[in-house]
């Protein structure tokens, strides 16, 4: 949801010379700035090392919904892959800004009983420790999908219908998918004083 929004923003911006998109399967996207690379194993990225040189900003939006996969796969997608990517970027473009899509409630003590909070917190800790010059983690609340989609479960269907009410509950409760993507892009370009950006911090960027 956010990765596709970000890709469109990057490709449309005049300052973008190339967008390297790491995907699991080929997309239908076509653009003269787009370099799409199909990756079969995101834990083995040495084969694309040359493509990771001279990177200015990287946006990691990989994710999976809680309950859709077993805990081992959830940890792989939520923690291990983002960290492996950070390590490879650091090895070839240590000056790059790493923008990581985390989530509200990410627990950097790594003691939460909720696997989402625990694994997101672990990812934040480990990416921060890699040594990249600039690392920023985004912790949105409910993300309202501006582009219609098939909602993954009942909770998301209810949240979408109640979005007008949720939005009235304050700036730390929700954000539009387009707003989140634009904020991540701006931080990728210019950086930010904070490493951890909560929902209200993200909204203040745009």
Which helices and strands appear, and what pairs or packs with what?
Elements: H1 2-12, E1 19-23, E2 34-38, E3 57-60, H2 71-92, E4 97-101, H3 115-130, E5 134-139, E6 142-144, H4 154-161, H5 163-167, E7 174-176, H6 177-190, E8 196-198, H7 199-205
Parallel strand pairs: 1-2, 3-4, 4-5, 5-8, 6-7
Give the structure's gist in a few sentences.
The protein is an alpha/beta fold and 206 residues long. The chain is built from 7 helices and 8 strands.
> What is the radius of gyration computed over CA atoms, rounded to a whole number of angstroms?
17 Å
Order of helices and strands: HEEEHEHEEHHEHEH
Strand content: 15-25%
Amount of helix = 40-55%
Structural class: alpha/beta
Main beta-sheet strand count, sense and barrel state: 4 strands, parallel
The count of helical stretches stands at 7
Strand order of the largest sheet: 3-4-5-8
Look at the structure and give the CATH class.
Alpha Beta
Estimate the mean pLDDT confidence.
92
CATH-defined fold name: Rossmann fold
Low-confidence stretches: none
Overall body shape = globular
State the fourth-level CATH superfamily. NAD(P)-binding Rossmann-like Domain
Oligomer: single chain
Tell me about this structure.
- The protein has 206 residues and is α/β, with parallel strands linked by helices.
- It has a single domain (2-43, 55-141, 177-197), classed as Rossmann fold (3-Layer(aba) Sandwich), CATH 3.40.50.
- Helix content is 40%, strand content 17%.
- The protein contains seven helices and eight strands, in the order αβββαβαββααβαβα.
- It has helices spanning 2-12, 71-92, 115-130, 154-161, 163-167, 177-190, 199-205; strands spanning 19-23, 34-38, 57-60, 97-101, 134-139, 142-144, 174-176, 196-198.
- Strands 3-4-5-8 form a four-stranded parallel beta sheet, with helices on both faces. A two-stranded parallel sheet has the order 1-2.
- Helix 1 packs across helix 6 (177-190) and helix 2 packs parallel to helix 3.
